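I have been asked to look over a protein record a colleague put together. This is what I was given:
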Amino acid sequence: MAVVSELIRKESDGSISFGDYTLDKKTKLADFEVAGDMYKVKTFNEITKLERNGMFVYESTPGTAVNAFKATADEVSFFVEGLGQTQITLELTAEKEYEVFISNRAVGKMKTNLGGKLTISVDADKEAVTHVKVVAI
């Protein structure tokens, strides 16, 4: 997997891929439709951010490339690559507990805050993707 040179794309399985951490300046693409939802992505080496229908979905610092991003009411999963220690924030259900898996290894349970945000740390690598899965308990 690699950076998403078109900034965002729909995959054949219905998931989306987005982000390009190799860019030196902030680049964005709005009004990308997938299954009736409108997505907007902003990405470069310092941050990658995804919004759906004007609402926050994903943010990483520094920037990342995200592949096969799927989100349901009970689970979010994706593959991420980047340049080292990365903080990822996801918008989920407020005040709900989730089990977090990184590279198919359970790393613990976390509860979202009042705003529904959950923040995790990942060692992103440009040579190997890291699988992240967050499951509602």
Observations:
- DSSP finds no helices and 13 strands in the chain.
